């Protein structure tokens, strides 16, 4: 509503750019939350189970390596 007001006409371009930036920031934050949820799930699988370490040694090693780089 504010974007279409007469007073905002002068700032229309700036408002659209700020709106686009906020939309990108929102998308990045939502994606980051999904990564964190997935990482926590994988961490509980690979770091909390000796059985998985024996069944999937290559994947467990790869996860451990990436995990240490990330941290």
Automatic annotation (TrEMBL):
<feature type="domain" description="Dynein heavy chain linker">
    <location>
        <begin position="3"/>
        <end position="71"/>
    </location>
</feature>
<dbReference type="Pfam" id="PF08393">
    <property type="entry name" value="DHC_N2"/>
</dbReference>
<dbReference type="InterPro" id="IPR013602">
    <property type="entry name" value="Dynein_heavy_linker"/>
</dbReference>
<protein>
    <recommendedName>
        <fullName>Dynein heavy chain linker domain-containing protein</fullName>
    </recommendedName>
</protein>
<dbReference type="InterPro" id="IPR026983">
    <property type="entry name" value="DHC"/>
</dbReference>
<dbReference type="InterPro" id="IPR042222">
    <property type="entry name" value="Dynein_2_N"/>
</dbReference>
């Amino acid at each position: 509503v504010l974007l279409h007001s007469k007073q905002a006409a002068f700032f229309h371009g700036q408002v659209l750019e700020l709106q686009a930036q906020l939309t990108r920031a929102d998308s990045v934050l939502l994606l980051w939350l999904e990564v964190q949820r997935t990482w926590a799930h994988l961490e509980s699988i690979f770091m909390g189970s000796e059985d998985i370490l024996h069944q999937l040694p290559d994947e467990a090693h790869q996860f451990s390596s990436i995990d240490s780089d990330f941290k």
